[in-house]
Every structure is written in C-alpha cells, then in structure tokens.
Amino acid sequence: MAATATGIHHRSYSSELSLRATKAEYFRLGLMVVVLLVVPFVLDNYWLSIANTILIAVIGAVGLNILVGYTGQISLGQGGFLAVGAYTSVIISDRMGLPVPVAIALAVLMTAAVGTFFGLPGLRLKGLYLAIATLASQQIIEFVIRRWGWLTEDQGFIDVERLEVAGFRVERTLFEQQWYWILLAFAVLTVLTARNLFRTGLGRSFMAVRDQDIAAEAIGVNLARAKLTAFAVSSGFVGLAGALTAHYTEIVTWERFTLDVSILYLAMIIVGGLGSIAGAVYGAIFMTLLPVLIREAATSIRDVAPFLASQLPAVQNAVFGLTIIVFLIVEPRGLDRIWQRIKDYVRFWPFRY
Amino acid sequence: MSTFLNLMVYGLADGAILALAALGFVLIYKATSVINFAQGEFLLVGAYMFYTAFVVLQLPLVLAVVFGVVIATLIGVLVERLILRPMVGENPISIIMVTIGLSIFLRSVVQMFYGTRPQSQPAVLPTGSVNVLGATIPVNRLWVLLIAAVVLTAFTVFFRRSRHGIAMRAVADDQQAAMTMGISVRRIFAMAWALAAVSALIAGILLGDIYAVDQNIAAFGLLVFPVVILGGLDSVPGTIVGGLTIGLLKQFTSGYLDPGLATVIPYVVLVLILLVRPYGIFGETRIERV
Fold first, then answer.
1. Chain B interface includes A269 (CB < 8 A)
2. A3 vs chain B: nearest CA distance in angstroms?
3. Which of A123, A128, A318 sits opposite B105 (nearest CB)?
4. Would A132 be classed as within a structural domain?
5. How far is B121 from chain A (nearest CA, A)?
6. Which residues constitute the domain of residue A250?
7. Architecture of B2-276 per CATH?
8. What are the tens digits of pLDDT across the range B167-204?
9. What is the chain B residue with the closest CA to A138?
10. What is the pLDDT of residues A206-228, one digit of tens each?
11. How many C-beta neighbours within 10 Å does residue B139 have?
C-alpha cells in the first residue's frame, strides 16, 4: 500500500506505535484543532446547529463503525438503540430528578445492555441473517416506544428540560455555541476512545473476528465474548449519541428513531469508509451536509427548475439513495480511501506511482 | 364464526400477495445469492407503472398489464446489469447496502413523479360480495387468491419443465457446474431479476387494487423478510406456506387483538424462527457454526 510515508524509520517500538510520525501529520492535527476552535465564532446559528448535528452524528457513526466496520457484524438496529439512549436519559433526568451527567451515563449503560441482548442472535447468525435479525429488533423497539404509554406519560412525546448541570444552565441566546462546546468535547472523547480501542488487544480481537472468525477462534479469541463486547461498546456510543440528541433537541419522539435513521447511519459509515474512525467522521459530515446542500442548491435555482424545489424531500432522498449506490460501486472503501489516494498523488507528484 | 371466516379470507388474500412478493425475493437469492431489500419497492414501481398505463395513458387492461410487464422486465435487467454485476464478490454488508440504496432511490423517484397522496384507480377485479356461512366475503379477495394461485403454479411449472427454468435451478445448485454445461450464468442472473420484477409487478397490481395505489405498498413489501425466513430463504414452496402463515397471523392479530400489534407480530415470529430454525421450514440446511 502506497499510503505509508517513505523515509520514516522507527528506532523504538513506542515510536512505531505512535499515531503520528511526520511533521505534516502534526501540522494537519494543529490545523484541525484551530478550525474546530474557530467554528463557533465564525458560523451563524443556522450553520452552527448543523455543526452540532454533525457532532452527534460523528458519535453515533463512530459507534456503529466499531460494530459494522471493525467487527463485521451488520446492524440495522441503530435507530432503536438511539431511542433507548434518548428515552433512558430523559426519563432518568427529568422524571426521576437525577443530574443529567448521571442520567447520560446510565443511558449509555442501559443501551449497552440492550445492544448486548439484541446482539445475542449474532452468536449464531452471520451476514444477511444477522441483518434481518437486527431489522426485526429495530421494528420491535420502534413498536415498544410507540405503544408503551408509560415512557411518554401517554403524550406520545417528551418535552425535555433545558440542560442544567451543577448550577450551569444553557442560555437561550448562546444556545448553539454552548452546545457546540459540550458536543465537541463528547465527540473528541469518542473519537479518541475508539481510535485507541483498536490499539489494544480487545480491539484487535474484534478485527480478527471480522477478517476470519474461525481463525480468530483458533488463535484463542473467545468469539462469543468478542462479539457481545463489540455489540456492548458500539451500542454504548450509540446510546450516548441518543441521549445527547434528546437533551440537545429538547424533544423526544419515536419519529426520530425509525428504520430510516438506521439506514442513514449505515450510509454514513459506508460512504466514509468501513473500518476507519476517520472514515466514520467524514461520512457523518458528508451525509449530514448532503441534504442541506441540496436544499440550498434547489432554492438557489428555484426559478430555473421549480420542480426540484417543490419536490425537495423526494429529491433529497433520491440523491441519498444514489450516493450510496455510486459509492459502493465506484469506491467501496469510501471517502477515507479517496483522501488517502489524494495524499499519495501529492506525495508522488510528478510521478504516477 | 363470520368474523373468523372474514379474517381468514382477508388473511389468505394478503398471504397470497406476500407469497408472490416473496417468490421474487427467493428467485433472486437462489440464483444470485443477493438479499434484495428493494423487493417492496419493486411492488411499488410495478403498481405505479400499471396505474400509469391504465389510468394516465388510458390503455385497455390487457395492454396495461403488458406495458407493466415490459417495464418491470426492463427495470429488473437494468438493475442487475448496472448495479449488482459490479458488486459481484463484495462482502454481504456492501451488497445489502446497495439494495437498500436502490430501494430508497426507487421510492423517492416514484414520490417525485406521483407525490405521496393515494392515486385513485378504477377497480380491476370484480367488486361485490358473496355470503358464505353468514359471513360477507368480498369477491375481489377470492380473485386475488385465484390469480396468485395461477401465477405461482405457472412459475412452478416453469421451473420444473421449461429449459430456462431447469437452467436456473442448475445455476442455483452449482454455478461452476452449470457454466461447464454451457449455461450462460449472466443471462440466468438477468432472468432471475426480470422474473422477480414481474412477480413483484403482479403483487403490486393486486395490492393496489384491493387497498390503494400509494407509498404503503413498499412498507407492505418489507414483510417479505418474515415470510422468507419462515419458509426458508431458498425455497419456492416455502414462500407459499410462509406467505399464507404471515398473512393469516397478521389478519387474526389485527382482528382479534390489536391492529398495532399486527404490524410487529411478523417480526417477533421472525426472531423466534431465527433462534430455533434459521434455515426456515423448507430451506436447505446449511449448518455453519459461528
């Protein structure tokens, strides 16, 4: 693979294990930090709300990629797990009166437990059978949250109180800015945890299960434990994303957690790149921005093509479906691979390879 | 008693349509080992194509059906050629995702041209009702049963007797052996998709006639998963047994217990079947310890 930088010779194990080796990599990291810090002061509230949505999507997509991309267990139940996180956190914080951080932590644990339970079929099923089993879990969770009156006190939705932690309350005028910092902290934490998970024995056992499960078992990976841990860790992150969605949007309804949401998250990690943390981040950004940009484009050419603007939701969905198909056919390894190829091109210029 | 009979006829009619939809799904899976998440959308496109020919273009019934068959065949072949053939050899996750992408695309293209409101279409099947043992049974449900039975029999005879049908079974059984016998696997793949689209078209027309021509047809199509898991992913008789069972179960749950529960019951059955007998009632037993 040409994506390794030439001329780098490691003299110790620790330097070889480090995530970054070249100055260019440190420079890009610095650039990214600066951009992330400047964003809330540059963007207006509308674009900042989109940035916040992206940050939540990053957490969910990274979580899903741990399961699908790294462990090879396909899941169509993402929407249901988001719902578990959202409902648990809100019910614990608002109705039982516990502090929000405690509620979010409990929501993460709860979702991990539910995810492990619905991962049990994964011990016997693979590939398409697992996909259909998780599709069923999505339908069942969706039915439960729609029909279980206790969850919403028979209202059909829950109004969530403004976030308040230890005397600090999110202000109305600075709502998006303050949430940006909160969500950014969680997103960075998620990415760091996931990135480092795959440098540990546990993370490597996930990848062994994905690449060849029988061989993995032969070298001593406990398959059942690895798969269930993957379901638990992944659902934990997804639950975190769900809980944050609930507190950020301040309303919880079942419509936010349908099968379409599961598919959206799967699309994020496929377009971004399966089995890559950076890919999950690119995918989350790309898939959240896509409908927004289509809307902008359709409204700006409203006079030329009124059809596009009047049929906006259908057009957005058609482009969404087409994007999935085109990416899978043209570049199955997603945006992450495209970015690597661009880097290679620059590195080897003026030579082809 | 009359409620029971009524529910049974409704359930059997639903089940017959489900069996037709599942037949296409099984055809594709058997021949090409692709899980087609877009089967419901094939029903949707089929129903709208027939609507376009019959109501918008005002063609006579027979011509409208022919128009639908031609378009369905075309779509099936194009989907196989343009989308699934480049994906040969990819991992199951990618193949599942590409059919999900296709389903979203087809659904939104239909929405773009026809909107989300139900389209009114004059009844094709005879309306009216007959009295059986005190129950009022709509005639069109009985016609649905008859048509589905005829189509399913025709497909079965096709597989048993015709050259192409036998070639398809050969490819499903062993692709390489079929190739050495001079069967064009590419043509069989295209044929499987075309036939699946045609059976979905028939299911879509029937569904549009007894309910309405709207986006719910695609949601109905999602029920092929419980059907094929119950009957076995690669079994044609399994689709009939699975389809009728799920159809009856759904109607009885909705009639006696709760209509909301009826939407989720098939999936509960699905999970139970997966835990007990993942290859279904008639499916080929391929035990793989994982």
1. no
2. 23
3. A318
4. yes
5. 23
6. 22-256
7. Orthogonal Bundle (1.10)
8. 888 888 888 888 898 888 888 889 899 999 999 999 99
9. B267
10. 999 988 888 988 998 898 899 99
11. 13
